[in-house]
Amino acid sequence: MARLHALLTLLAAFAPAAHAAGALPRSLRDTGLYARGDMEEIAADVLAFSPQYPLWSDGAEKSRWIRLPKGTRIDARDPDRWVFPVGTRLWKEFRLGRRLETRMLERTRAGWRFATYVWAEDGSEAVLAPADGVRGGVPVPGGGRWTIPGTGDCQACHEGQPNPVLGFGTLQLSSDRDPGALHAARGRTEVHLEDLVARGLVHGLPASLVATPPRIAGASADERAALGYLHANCGTCHNRQGPLAGIGLDLLQSVSEGAASAERVRASALAVRALRPVRGAELRVDAGDPEHSVLFRRMGVRDPLDQMPPLGTEKPDREALALVERWIHSLVVRRTP
Amino acid sequence: MISKPMLLAALSMSSLALAAPASTPSQVKRGEYLVNFGGCHDCHTPKKMGPAGPELDTDRLLSGHPEQMAVTPAPALAAPWLAATVVTMTAWSGPWGISYAANLTPDRETGLGAWTEQNFVDTMRTGRHMGRGRPILPPMPWQMVKNLTDQDLKSVFAYLRTLPTVKNRVPQPVPPASAAPVLKPSAEAK
Prior knowledge:
heterodimer; A: 337 residues; alpha+beta; 8 helices; 18% strand; globular; B: 190 residues; two-stranded antiparallel ribbon
């Protein structure tokens, strides 16, 4: 305990000064997430939400919230790229036996900014982490260490496509939830698309998407879930709009495209030669053959040179590997007349 | 330090290279200055042995580790030795595994031809491949290079775009032996 307090003191020393104009608060308690200073009850103007396709974070449990400035609303006229009002804040809390860190995303006049707060072991405090993060710096109950991402890590994923808010959008909040989605929160009464529209917090969303909440047009339940998983865990970088568009792997779904979206994603991966083969596997996805599919193989690796995703995880997602494996096997069945 | 004949040769070949439509001559010149001063050739240009020792192979400027050069396992080093390199100085072995200097010429398939300026800047700033992928390995000093201004990094990229294209597929880095094993597909899913 004493060592963690020493670490938190050290982190606070490296944190940007809070008194500067627009500086990030040093403590999570001052970010507006909580109703009171004890950091237990969530503030009344903060909404909890759960994306239907969460990001894998080595099995950590997560809670997520959003707060819009009073009287503002989200512009959803482009249903794939919501525009959030200046002052929007989103938080994501990570837990493994206890609260480990809470990340915050804020829309400022200059753009989005990223912060993460590291929790004390007794839950009494969470302080701003240094911009470079803390590799393996946080002890996990039962053993192991947790890595706090640096700002560059945050940007790598959140700025990998035009919309920096990854888990709060049309597909992720659709009430047509995918029952096969991995690691999704179930049974919670949290906000979804129709609520947001009805409450006036989201405006401009095409009426067709309000009437018929979007879903991924998978040919099977496994494919729907697998494409959803790839959308959330890979598509943030591997898409046709962001800095890695030149790679030509496009795993990001688009609700404005409808059913064509799933077909586009399949076409970018199926039987396409990988730019970087992995020990014998040369195609991104080789229908019927996970062992020779680079996508599957790199999902199963956790050495820094080959692993996918390349950051934010140190343990392979075995449930996802099983799902993607079933999906790749199913492709050959469909291909066979 | 590059010699005058090498510099002239480099300039001569540069005139044959791909055009960089968005760059200006002064930007390219600045990038060339930074590349020559910054030690990029130390690893990214293969060396050949001359009368006075290793010298730049000017036919392969900044084209990275030659793909046809087989690299045998590095010798085991005893402390305080940390790293070993090969005769071309384009492959390095150390606690990080084996790293190979990248092909920086504008070849689309094997060099930086498919990269955007933003990919290059992001890579130098973050130490990650294309700004988002695997870590860039030692001895690449991206921790120092990242301190260049955006303008200087863009100048470096503009100069690299003017290099003669060399088709040379550099091997992928090799992780250290202690790296995590690969998970295999299960039998049940088939």
